[in-house]
Design a protein that fits this description.
single chain, 295 residues, alpha/beta, eight-stranded mixed beta sheet, 8 strands, 32% helix
């Protein structure tokens, strides 16, 4: 069969008119180094170890997310229209009341669908729709990193020295901590999984319903030092020095905590002095590449 020479509107170029997402994937892998698990072996995990698991908002690569919506209500409505088989969800928060709810869904068509929503979990409406999402859909694993400020190691000191500021921070942090506890309970009841990161020690686990969650036979906690996952100072005279910053991973399954076992610092290197360096500690809220890979 003879095919006539033709070029239409594209001329002779056969290059894709869209961005090469695979190129971004391999560049990110080169930057992140060795992955704890070979994520590409499982389709729902394709690219997920550099698209997700940043710990605080703003980390998700918007160019690789199918849909970004304003709030959990829109998030819920979009997913109702996108039937799937299983989800992996992340609830993360860093500053003030700004949170993100992000989901990777394995669609019934075989494709992966990514959606991210901004949310304010101090608002009852946002909590309602976010909770309805976990109740209605099959979420294989909920990855959570709620606001830690008033609960962390410096929380008691701030409560004593700056009680008004601490109370304001607690008014924001408490409903988020409680929400994450309810999500953990939902996951346990549905025989699904969750993992949550917090600084160590943390009084967050005194908030209800966390005492009930922590008493569940499936739940366990592993403490690790973040310097063992590559956390370093990113500025100042101590730039590139390791930051110890003890943290914990609390999860429903050994398979989720095991990658963080045996990661206490042996004391063979110096640590940056983080006292009074709020900007440095703020930057350290973001999970390192190694932490994201292990998750």
């Amino acid at each position: 069969k003879v095919v006539e020479d033709h070029h239409d509107d594209c001329g002779e170029c056969l290059d894709s008119i869209t961005k090469d997402l695979d190129a971004d994937y391999h560049i990110a892998l080169d930057n992140r180094g060795h992955c704890y698990y070979e994520a590409r072996e499982l389709n729902i995990l394709d690219n997920i170890h550099f698209q997700y698991f940043y710990g605080i908002p703003g980390g998700h690569l918007r160019g690789l997310v199918n849909v970004a919506v304003a709030d959990p209500e829109q998030f819920f409505k979009v997913l109702v229209e996108k039937p799937g088989t299983i989800d992996i969800a992340e609830v993360c928060g860093g500053e003030a009341r700004t949170m993100q709810l992000a989901t990777r869904r394995k669609l019934t068509t075989g494709q992966n669908f990514d959606i991210v929503a901004g949310c304010d979990l101090t608002r009852a409406n946002d909590r309602h729709y976010a909770k309805q999402y976990f109740e209605r859909f099959s979420v294989l694993c909920a990855v959570m990193a709620p606001i830690c400020g008033p609960y962390g190691p410096l929380g008691a000191l701030n409560k004593s020295n700056y009680p008004e500021a601490w109370n304001r921070a607690m008014q924001t942090a408490r409903p988020i901590a409680q929400f994450c506890g309810h999500i953990a309970e939902i996951q346990l009841r549905k025989r699904r999984s969750f993992i949550q990161e917090q600084p160590h020690p943390s009084t967050l686990y005194e908030e209800q319903p966390w005492p009930r969650v922590m008493s569940h036979p499936r739940v366990q906690q592993v403490v690790y030092d973040r310097c063992q996952c590559g956390l370093k100072a990113d500025r100042g005279p101590e730039k590139e020095m390791a930051i110890k910053k003890p943290s914990s991973m609390t999860a429903s399954d050994t398979e989720l905590t095991e990658p963080f076992s045996g990661l206490r610092c042996p004391g063979k290197h110096e640590h940056a002095n983080t006292k009074g360096t709020g900007i440095m500690l703020k930057a350290a809220q973001v999970w390192t590449w190694q932490e994201a890979d292990r998750i």
